[in-house]
Design brief:
Layout lengths: L5 E4 L5 H11 L4 E6 L3 H13 L4 E5 L5 H15 L4 E4 L14 H29 L5 E6 L12 H21 L3 E8 L10 H9 L9 H13 L7 E4 L17
Parallel strand pairs: 1-2, 1-4, 2-3, 4-5, 5-6, 6-7
Helix pairs in contact: 1-2, 1-7, 3-4, 4-5
Length: about 260
């Protein structure tokens, strides 16, 4: 029997990352659960993965720190024996605007959202080469429908995700044929400090399809890309059509 592929999901302790990890664990993947500070949530995710029959292990790392990020893939390989795919879901979101933009804010978002995707893709490529893997690996980067429906809110976050979108294309070119690199761009899927449950339901009902994307929809798209051998350098928008409905403000600022 062929060994189960191993996927590293960054930010897998909570929210979308947890949903993606559990979805993949139930569908034939063993899972490296990355987290930064949410150790208790990571343990809960690991317990649920084990209940689904997956081998899983947790890995704490601050991806904004280059040394910590570079140590992550070797740690996964040492613990789980191999690595076949990376889902870069971990993300920093700190609202700012052009009027209060700072170099420091941009750097924080770049270091958390963009640079780790490049380092982790590079490390996956090198591991697969050293292993002599017969099949290509895959990286899936989590983007944002906001890139196709821009507004001036959340400047540093948006710029970091735009850079990640460009990195997805560049990495797909640079790392082929050993690694495929794709993106998933969710629409408004979960609530936040700015969006309570009632506002989430109201905004999602205004989407082109009359409903919003669910976490399970995002996980399903990630799973598709991880198994789609002929797909690279492209992004799947999972947003119920929200990118086709321009707004002059970010969702969190809409009435």
């Amino acid at each position: 029997m062929a060994p189960r592929p191993v996927v590293l999901v960054t930010g897998a302790a909570r929210r979308l990352g947890r949903e993606i990890a559990l979805h993949l664990g139930a569908r034939g993947f063993d899972v490296a659960v990355h987290y930064r500070r949410s150790a208790a949530d990571a343990e809960a995710t690991l317990a649920d993965l084990h209940a689904r029959g997956a081998v899983a292990a947790g890995f704490a790392a601050d991806l904004a720190d280059e040394a910590s990020c570079r140590a992550l893939v070797p740690a996964v390989v040492a613990r789980l024996g191999r690595l076949d795919a990376v889902v870069h879901n971990a993300s920093l979101f700190e609202p700012d605007h052009a009027a209060d933009f700072t170099y420091a804010a941009m750097e924080r978002h770049w270091r958390a959202n963009t640079a780790p995707a490049v380092v982790l893709a590079q490390a996956l490529h090198d591991h697969l080469a050293a292993r002599g893997a017969a099949e290509p690996g895959c990286v899936v980067n989590l983007l944002d429908q906001k890139l196709w429906n821009p507004n001036p809110d959340c400047v540093s976050y948006t710029l970091s995700k735009a850079a990640l979108q460009c990195a997805t294309t560049l990495l797909a070119q640079a790392l082929a044929p050993r690694v495929r690199v794709c993106g998933v761009a969710p629409g408004l899927t979960l609530g936040s400090a700015q969006i309570d449950d009632a506002k989430l339901e109201r905004l999602q009902a205004q989407a082109l399809l009359g409903y919003g994307a669910r976490p399970a929809d995002i996980a399903q798209a990630v799973h598709y890309l991880l198994t789609a051998r002929a797909v690279t350098g492209t992004t799947v928008l999972v947003d119920a059509g929200q990118h086709l409905q321009p707004h002059d403000r970010d969702f969190g600022y809409l009435a």
